[in-house]
Amino acid sequence: MEDESSAKPWAKHLARMDRWRTTAVCYLRKWIGQHGQSVQAQFLQGAAHRLGSGAVTLLILWWEARR
Length: 67
Description:
elongated; 90% helix; 67 residues; 2 helices; single chain; 0% strand; mainly alpha
């Protein structure tokens, strides 16, 4: 039989985690609404920027190697 004192910390922990999760989800929804883009769109935009940056770097290296 479990002691009540050992059950209470778990209940408090679960309640705290639930509040944290609810707050995080609310924050993310608000952020997405303000920026007008989904997380997937932000990821693709970042990936395209990174790819473009890499292409420019390769172009500069190729140009310098020819000289």
